[in-house]
Amino acid sequence: MNKLILIIDDEEDIREVVQMSLELNAGWRTISCGSGPEGVARAQSDCPDAILLDVMMPGQDGAAVLNELKADARTAPIPVIMLTAKARTERNPPPGAAGVIVKPFDPARLAAQIVEMLGWSIPSVTSGAQPSDDPMAVTTPLPTNPRA
């Protein structure tokens, strides 16, 4: 199933990494927004399958955006996963959040983390990367650690 994920983060680099990771590793469609108000509007208009929401943003922070999303009948059912650089939040996700992913995160594992948190069943993501059917795709093996 082709999921639609809304990314709300004020850092353009983070939005790009998340977007590329989810599109390449899971085949999901993404929408990215750089602010809370823009993200709330896109959530209301596009009804994504899930939202990745940065905790610390200028103006309206992630907690305020989460509260606004959960107060609106159109967006309340959408699962929200918080993105944060604050590791302490990992133990205590805010009420209404489906989970927390701590930055820096591993882009290769991001889709699998989302699948696990939301209980989605997506074989190509949960069982690991599969070879591409695209003859133009380039696969780069990960380096191995000889000390492991």
Overall description:
36% of the residues lie in helices and 16% in strands. It starts with a strand and ends in a 22-residue tail after the last helix. The protein has a single domain, classed as Response regulator (Rossmann fold). It is globular. It is built from six helices and five strands. A five-stranded parallel sheet has the order 2-1-3-4-5, with helices on both faces. Strand 4 (80-84), helix 4 (88-91) and strand 5 form a beta-alpha-beta unit. The chain is α/β, with parallel strands linked by helices. It has helices spanning 12-26, 36-46, 62-71, 88-91, 110-118, 123-126; strands spanning 4-8, 29-33, 50-54, 80-84, 99-102. The model is unreliable at 126-148 (pLDDT under 50).
Overall shape: globular
The count of helical stretches stands at: 6
Strand order of the main beta sheet, please? 2-1-3-4-5
In round numbers, the mean pLDDT is 84
- Biggest β-sheet description: 5 strands, parallel
Q: The CATH topology, please?
A: Rossmann fold
- What are the secondary-structure elements, in order, as H or E? EHEHEHEHEHH
The structural domain count equals 1
CATH-assigned homologous superfamily? Response regulator
Whole-number radius of gyration?
Answer: 16 Å
Backbone structural class: alpha/beta
Could you tell me the number of beta strands?
5
Please report the first level of CATH classification, the CATH class.
Answer: Alpha Beta
Low-pLDDT windows of residues = 126-148
